[in-house]
Automatic annotation (TrEMBL):
It comes from the Eukaryota. InterPro entries: aa-tRNA-synth_I_CS, aa-tRNA-synth_Ia, Ile-tRNA_ligase, Rossmann-like_a/b/a_fold. Residues 64-227 form the Aminoacyl-tRNA synthetase class Ia domain. This is Aminoacyl-tRNA synthetase class Ia domain-containing protein. One of its GO terms (biological process) is isoleucyl-tRNA aminoacylation.
Length: 257
């Protein structure tokens, strides 16, 4: 196949001219152009000036004293205290900040108490990693101590970053899931659920991690969409029992994952 150009000499001359210049990749993209600076000079000074002109803590204290206003409560689903903040934390907190500020402008008094989830496998693994310990050889008491120390440091750093974003919340009254008061309240609520017969026991598949010897939450699972199972099987004893009794056997599937 041949491609013909109206002016082959002009094309060849232009091709040699373009190829001889050093062009960055971004110059080849047809992106919107703006005079707005992508980086702000004196960013730290500008941020401090905004905090002084619009003190969030004073605004929060003022609105808590407006007792005639109807109360609006926003429950904060706590993030894990397991490391630096990322764009997901930003999106979550900014959305909540928009909601509480909207309610404040519409004449409500606010109750938005931030919190942190200080338990769980991610925190334990981070604590063991920070202290260079093997997760297969661990004393529960030591792991809990390391995890508590790591979570405390992580949540304090996260708290500072949240406040630097200007999030309107009760930062002087945060909750932490490893505080004794919080744990006792959870046990009392669990007992109330039990008394009202809201609890039941039922079989459920458990996601198990052989490496850390612990159950995993759905959010901790990673699925390989390209995986293909090569074998399935039924326990012979169950099949034999069903044939002998003439009843339909329960289905058991064993698959290599």
């Amino acid at each position: 196949m041949r491609i013909l150009f109206g002016n082959q000499k002009f094309f060849n001359r232009n091709l040699r001219y373009v190829s001889s210049k050093s062009i960055s990749y971004k110059d080849t993209l047809n992106m919107p152009k703006s005079k707005f600076a992508s980086t702000m000079k004196n960013r730290i000074k500008c941020e401090n000036d905004i905090r002084q002109k619009f003190p969030v803590n004073q605004l929060w204290e003022w609105q808590t004293k407006q007792m005639r206003r109807p109360l609006f409560v926003l429950h904060d689903g706590p993030p894990f205290a397991n490391g630096p903040l990322h764009i997901g934390h930003f999106l979550n907190k900014i959305q909540k900040d928009i909601i509480v500020r909207y309610k404040l402008l519409n004449g409500h008094r606010l109750d938005f108490r931030p919190g942190w989830d200080c338990h769980g496998l991610p925190i334990e693994l981070k604590a063991l990693q920070e202290n260079k310990r093997n997760s297969n050889d661990k004393d529960p008491i030591i792991v809990r101590k390391l995890a508590r120390q790591f979570a405390t440091e992580a949540l304090e750093k996260q708290k500072q970053d949240f406040q630097s974003w200007g999030i309107l919340a009760d930062w002087n009254n945060c909750y932490r899931t490893f505080d004794k008061e919080f744990i006792v309240d959870q046990l009392r609520l669990f007992w109330r659920l039990y008394q009202k017969d809201f609890l039941y026991r039922q079989y459920k598949p458990v996601n198990w991690s052989p490496s850390v010897q612990s159950a995993l939450a759905e959010s901790e699972l990673e699925y390989n969409d390209k995986h293909k199972r090569s074998s399935t099987g039924l326990p012979p004893d169950e099949v034999q029992k069903a044939e002998n009794s003439g009843k339909k056997a329960e289905a058991y599937i064993v698959a290599d994952l």
